[in-house]
Automatic annotation (TrEMBL):
Extent of Gly residues compositional bias: 65-75
UniProt cross-references to SUPFAM superfamilies, sorted A to Z: Cullin repeat-like (SSF74788)
Name listed for the protein in its UniProt record: Exocyst subunit Exo70 family protein
GO molecular function annotation: phosphatidylinositol-4,5-bisphosphate binding
Amino acid sequence: MDSRSQAPYKSSSFSQATTRDDGGRSREVDRNFSLGAVRDKRDLHHGGAREQAIKEEEEPEEGDGAPGGHGGGGDPDLAALSVEIDAFIAGHDADAPVTVTEATLEKFASAVELLIARSEGADDKWAAEAGGEPSPLLAAITRIAALASALGKSPEGGGKHTAAVHRVTGVLHRAMAFLEDEFHALLGGDPCAAKAGIEHESDRCVLPLPPSADHGSAGAGKEAAPPYPPETVDRLRAMADAMIAAGYSTECTQMFLVARRNAFDAALQGFGYDKSNMDDVVKMAWEALEAEIVAWTKAFRHAINVGLSTEHELCTRVFSGRHAAVGRDIFADLARCVMLHMLSFTEAVAMTKRAAEKLFKVLDMYEAVRDASPVIEAFLSADEPGTADRSSSSALAELKAEIASVRARLSESAAAIFQELEGSIRADAGKQPVPGGAVHPLTRYVMNYLKYACEYNSTLEQVFREHGRHGGGDDNPFSAQLMDVMELLHGNLEAKSRLYKDPSLSSIFLMNNGRYMLQKIRGSPEINAMLGEAWARKQSTNLRQYHKNYQRETWSRVLGLLRDDGVLTVKGHVQKPVLKERFKQFNAAMDEIHRTQGAWVVSDEQLQSELRVSIAAVVVPAYRSFLGRFSQHFSAGRQTEKYVKLSAEDVETIIDELFDGNATSMVRRRA
């Protein structure tokens, strides 16, 4: 039977509420949302109808006819009464007036009430009959709802049988209160759920968590176990059908929505996510907020990948057939309520002060929101054709629009945070050089930051396509942004190298920092792919030039002391005073180099080894040759010891002790 043709006659003592019939049209319902007042008074209605019905069942009066008869005081014959009631309802629907007696109405109401009383606590009260017919209880409740609707439009309901009509309406309210109790208990809202004939586990109504709640994309691509077993869903569907057919759609849908919203929230709390207001988020210290973002990201991904599909399936199964539109509306409202509240968290995060360390958590949020769009689009596409104006489509469209808006805000925030890295590099104009020409803290910070950023390379490419400076063409805008940062860092380091008074140390500084940058790039496939091999070759070329500059500044003068440039020998004769001066200058130069450059730092072992080997390969053979040619011109003993203080092996040892950060003099070393 169509629910619109069976809208019950409801007592005017209940305030009006608005609900929606199966066609989506609004209509008024003459009762409060909650049936609590009915529950409180129902056992007093008509002198304690429930107790009276049971008493009559147990103690039939004598002389009132045979038990089960139509006019006796025993159990009312529900089957026989139903025939008359069906005839009255059918006659009303067919515009062929069929009358019904006041006694029949009273007895039918009592029979239905007795059946409800007997059904409390029964496990199989909602079980369908053989052949798929609805259970007797469900059939009786549906029939009394149809009767109340028919009475509201017939002479019998307009004053002819006023007392009996009120009796029917009261039993209908009693039936609806009973259904609400059962529905509420099965949904998990009633801790005493055992009275519904189902033993519930404490978390039966909560969305299941995925096997690992620690993974950022927990639950993605995994089917979740349904929150209710099939037999429970069948009972929920039967109750929903009965309540909606009786005109209690608002109570049914609101209770379902609230119960599932609570279950959804409980599941999200399992990921450590709890609702926070925007003011609290904005004021939160970054360490605390970072933990909140991690929990939010896990919970949001679970909601999108597991929670919504679970709830969609449940709504589809409970509200099926002619009530499918109701299920779509409930799901859409649930999805909108849960997701909009979660999305408000991102707005609060975007309002916090921008800082470079926030980039990666903002990108995590961006990715989660981005991945939500096709999920919501799929639910929208699943709506039946021609339902674009339905409230479900409207709610999901609103959610889709909000997701797009949040994605844009997060994209803008991420792009701005990354671009502020350039501002940080420009602002780092310290006037104190790093001791020993070591890797500058700015270099370490920027390169490590870029390494992590490039792990989000595809996401940052999307971000900069949406909100970056580099636009148009097929080029990757993030790659261009990365190049800008690298060039800016290179220029900053060139400026810092000029803070060193010693040109050799300036070259060591540039070598250290350039080598660190190159190693970071080659050690990260992502950043290496973004910058390209051409950039790496250019950086290698720069390093070779810094190396040449260092050797020229430091060792060219030393090597010049070891050359016979026409001053040491004149016409085949060694000029001894000049030779003595040459040895004295060489010894002083080596002592100075050892003392100063021993304190310089080359932390990269390979670079340190390359420098030492390249220096030794030039200096040691030159010194050995110089010794072999000129040392014999000194008298053995004190004169030799005074001028020839270093052997070729000593020079090699000095070179091997360079760049280890330990300042010592050659004299102290030899002592």
